[in-house]
Amino acid sequence: MKEFVISEVKAETAILVGLITQDQDEAKTKEYLDELEFLADTAGAVTVKRFTQKVNSANQTTYVGKGKLEEIKQYIIDEEDADREIGMVIFDDELSAKQIRNIENELKVKILDRTSLILDIFAMRAQTANAKTQVELAQYRYMLPRLQRLWTHLERQRGGSGSGGGKGSVGLRGPGETQLEMDRRIILQRITLLKQRLTEIDKQKTTQRKNRGRMIRVALVGYTNVGKSTIMNLLSKSEVFAENKLFATLDTTVRKMVIDNLPFLLADTVGFIRKLPTDLVDSFKSTLDEVREADLLVHVVDISHPDFEEQIKVVEKTLSELGCSDKPSMIVFNKIDAYTWVDKEPDDLTPMTKENVTLDELRRTWMANMNDSCLFISAREKMNIDELREVLYKRVRELHVQKYPYNDFLYQDYEE
């Protein structure tokens, strides 16, 4: 009788590579690589090493310089000799087909860039037909200009070109290129089909939105993993999937809420991220329409994140690209229970940094700038949630009276 040995599946190991440039200093590169490591962890990979290089701009053929690429190659060889195989190398920026091909030829391991890693996570997270279709479209759009490297194993014929003496392009199309053209045509057809499906989904979503009645629409927006779904669950008493991973939510979830006498719709939307691939923004049009059609945007911010101000800028830039920058909005700083700062000694005369700012000082600064459109809460610890409900009620009621002046009290407030 055979004995079956159950072996533990090991997570793939990854090396991260980033650049320090004129536009991106060392501290910024570290923050980006921290986020890239979180993305890799979400995708199921374990980061074992980071490489950075200080350059004016990315190398057009290999992203990093020749010397740095050789250093990465030697590290991979040394790890393999020590029986610690490196599964992949992940680059912090989007790579061209030429860069991927050249790096793969040199390193002999799987090469990913930030965009392909995000697409992989989206593919893993997609649950509904809508999300799966949107992700598949984004993947094909990403794949199309990079098809050439998929067929490098096919030899291309180098026959003569007739009267050209062997140097012209006519007559040189070998089986690899024929296959490439065939695959390009198949992918273009698939993209067309997926676009048609998304157009149908978009029509269905539009019809659904029209049938929601005379209610104000509120959308929770923000960077990925800031706690939007947790706030959604808390306010609407629903069970939206939430966990401490990037892009836990891909599909927009809409719930009807009632505060006192006022009903409105609350939507939880997909999170944004730095360097979000354009193909994803285009593909997720029907999902992001919830943001476009919202009457009020509630911008949720993770105040415990060391770079939350940069995340605010990323979200505001993305909202501007969606044409939503002029919508009524408010900021909700979440995770105040996890906020930390470094207290300066009385005799420390060095300039104060953002690590030395207390939560009270941050609160006073932001409240002074934004008046009543700024709140500090902890959704996990349920801190200041009543205040959030009060402010939401006030803002939604103002918008409701403006939009539906003859229908401003839909439910009897029995407490009055």
Automatic annotation (TrEMBL):
Oligomeric form and interacting partners: Monomer. Associates with the 50S ribosomal subunit.
PANTHER family reported in the protein's UniProt record: GTP-BINDING PROTEIN 6-RELATED, GTP-BINDING PROTEIN HFLX
Q: Name one Pfam family in it.
A: GTP-bdg_M
Q: Cross-referenced SUPFAM superfamilies, in alphabetical order?
A: P-loop containing nucleoside triphosphate hydrolases (SSF52540)
Source organism phylogeny:
Bacteria, Pseudomonadati, Bacteroidota, Bacteroidia, Bacteroidales
What organism does this protein naturally occur in?
Answer: Xylanibacter caecicola
This protein is called GTPase HflX
Q: Enumerate the UniProt keywords alphabetically.
A: Cytoplasm, GTP-binding, Magnesium, Metal-binding, Nucleotide-binding
What is its subcellular localisation?
A: Cytoplasm
Matching CDD domains: HflX
The protein's job, in short, is: GTPase that associates with the 50S ribosomal subunit and may have a role during protein synthesis or ribosome biogenesis.
Instruction: Family membership, please give it.
Output: Belongs to the TRAFAC class OBG-HflX-like GTPase superfamily. HflX GTPase family.
Span of domain Hflx-type G: 216-400
